[in-house]
Design a protein that fits this description.
4 copies of one chain form a homotetramer.
Chain A lengths: L9 H35 L5 H28 L3 H7 L1 H8 L10 H10 L3 H28 L10 H12 L12 H71 L1
Helix pairs in contact in A: 1-2, 2-4, 5-6, 6-7, 6-8
Membrane topology (chains A, B, C, D): Multi-pass membrane protein
Pfam families (chains A, B, C, D): Ion_trans_2
Protein name (chains A, B, C, D): Voltage-gated potassium channel
């Protein structure tokens, strides 16, 4: 447990990784926010001068470098590197695949995660709300970016985009607005998948809550029955002991 | 536990709050009904003379004052005020946010709640029916109010509005009618959320019912197995006792 | 238990009701089939001569009388009449409300029910398939009847109607076909409700199956642990008995 | 149990069937792939010369013969033939019904099944992904085949077909693209059913996972309580034994 060369001790490396993650939480949150502004602004205001547009692209590359550095450092400090890669797939995707960079915003969820603690029910609810909000918001931005200037497009303002995203994620799908470009359809396909996951999470949470309640009622009955059974055994043992004592008493009488 | 100044005793204040709630149940139901009429009438009949329209607005303000007063009284009588605010979020929203005033109608659910009693299954079913009915009815009124005079609107009669609301809450979403105003889309977004909740509740109730049934079958097997195990223990103890008695009998022989 | 006036004995009346239900099963199935033909034919072939149309109406009235008679007889033979009414709501609705007469076809489900036996899983699956098939088939007939001649109608053939009904019951709702009449929208509203119930049943059945499987695994572990615990108790009791025997043996030695 | 003619021994026949299935796994996978290419190519490229088209048809007939042979051999080697037919319905359908031949591709799932092992959770997830992918891919090919040249068709490219298939299987159903032919509507009906099954599987998996988690927590409490109960019994038995020993000790004192 106490080694001579601290830098090579796995548990020590893991501890350093956790210290690194604690230290970088808020800077990375800030980087995610800067990324969001640089990503959203040129989409929301297409009349921006080219210079600002280019600045936004540079800023986005900068935040990407920040997240890439963070990933590399954490990977190097990880005790079991292949396991680290497997357990943090979204982190890898968001730094490796350019179109998935908005996933860096999920870092916000990680922070909320720590704040909310370990209760399963509330964590599931929080993930559902966070992922849905992120999916609708980012989906609206991405679809607007893809569709706005396409011929025959029906989604041409952020209001349209938000409305379409919400109708899609709830699987209502009126069809008054729909993507016509390949990129837009890709965004839509991901949103539909989020919608199915959302429906599933809402239903599953409710179902597990109800099942848990029913079982608690059954459980109480079971406990009462078991209590009675064990009490019967104890009674019998007590009588046995009385009989054994009776064996001794004649001598003392 | 025994105090001198009864008015400051928490348990006494709580008791007074419950008496207040018992007393105001039916008056508040009536106020909710009056509110519904004053809210729905001008929407359903847009040819009403301006005077009646204004009267309806005054009546709605009056019912709002009634609900505001009720909320303030209950809050003052509450033992733990922050807890009261946290546990009655809909009551607060319905008096604080003007567009959410129709939520005052949910007071009807509270009354049904008491009538139906505590069985979890039937309470969930009742909430599903009540919330869906309220969502569809109020959603239809609100969407008609928002859309009727909008250019390019497809929802222009109460029949259209009800039809659209039902197609939305079931997540079918044909798209033959859809909102075009921002207010209408807001109403639609809430209805879609209700739809997901409805689907979730229906599924979760069925699932928990089925799981409960399966478990009752398993349960019976388990009980039979446990009965056999405890019976075996009792048999063994009975034999033990017989052997102990046999220790005494030689003397009597 | 053995009475003098057999006709007034409740258990005897119930037995006669069950004999009646056994005897009338196949005649009522036939009546339901005749009803289906008389209901569907004029809808599927609108070029029928008026005489045939009228004949179909007469036949439908005849089958209704058959079902009405059956309901009255069963009600009279029932031991607890209010309970009979409460437990057979669809039977009452199908004879009392003219537009719900197609529900008489659900009699087919009752017969299947007996054939399939009591296993919960397969009964739920069978109900889901039967109700969905009935809802889609009857919904298509009803919507075609309501829409065919309406101005602006998009559902004008049985193929369209079936296609629309299936897209509705699965909550997909393309919106390429949709009802425009009030009667048609009523049919659609019921179909959407069936769709939600179908989704709920499919999901709930799968969920309860999976939960049951997981629990069987847990169950086996629990049983093994309990077996070990009871075996430990039996061991201890056996040793106790050995010690008691050792008390006797010194005398015999 | 021990026979003279080994070829007629049921267990020996079953062993030979399993050896046959092991041997043919990869050749059948290859045949399925060849089938997929011969099926998809003429649909994806309608400008193919007639000769290639005919070649594709011949190749498809060839792969069908391969699968038919495999089915017949396995059926003959099966110990209980009616049970074999009942337990492999998709194998039978894919060789017996021409339009269902693409189901032969599900053979790929069988292979994955062996690779992934027996854990229920991951098997359900894998089935969901495999069936959805197969349904969307094959559905897109089939709908394109059915719709491309139909008058008034809205699905005329593979991109459209994939987009439509995904919007259908997630039950979003915008209605910007929809089938107009009877064959196309048949494909759509099957896809919608897959969509409901997908929603059900996702939800059910999540629900069973959550229920399992909740129960594990309850389980730990139960185990602790049971441990305490059994420990109390053991204590009492130990005391009993001490008393019995005390019966003997007086002699030794």
């Amino acid at each position: 447990m106490a080694g001579t060369d601290a830098t090579t001790l796995p548990s020590d490396r893991e501890a350093r990784r956790h210290r690194w993650e604690d230290l970088t939480t808020w800077p990375l949150m800030l980087a995610a926010l800067v990324f969001l502004v640089a990503y959203a602004w040129p989409i929301l205001d297409p009349t921006l001068p080219t210079a600002v547009d280019r600045l936004a692209a540079v800023v986005m590359r900068g935040t990407w470098l920040v997240f890439l550095t963070d990933y590399v450092v954490r990977l190097r400090l990880a005790h079991d590197r292949p396991a680290f890669v497997r357990h943090h797939p979204l982190d890898l995707l968001s730094v490796a695949v350019p179109v998935l960079r908005p996933l860096q915003l999920l870092r916000v969820v990680t922070v909320l995660d720590r704040a909310i603690g370990r209760r399963l029910g509330s964590r599931v609810a929080m993930y559902a709300v966070a992922v849905t909000t992120a999916a609708v918001g980012l989906g609206a931005l991405a679809i607007l970016d893809a569709e706005r200037d396409a011929p025959g497009a029906t989604i041409t303002s952020f209001g349209d985009a938000l409305w379409w995203a919400w109708a899609t994620v709830t699987t209502v799908g009126y069809g008054d607005r729909y993507p016509v470009t390949t990129a837009g359809r890709g965004v839509a396909a991901v949103l539909m998948l989020c919608g199915i996951a959302l429906l599933g999470l809402v239903t599953a949470s409710l179902a597990s809550f109800l099942v848990d309640r029913y079982q608690d009622e059954d459980e109480e009955e079971d406990q009462a029955r078991d209590d009675a059974r064990f009490a019967a055994l104890h009674d019998e043992l007590r009588e046995l002991r009385a009989e054994i004592r009776a064996l001794r008493r004649p001598e003392s009488l």
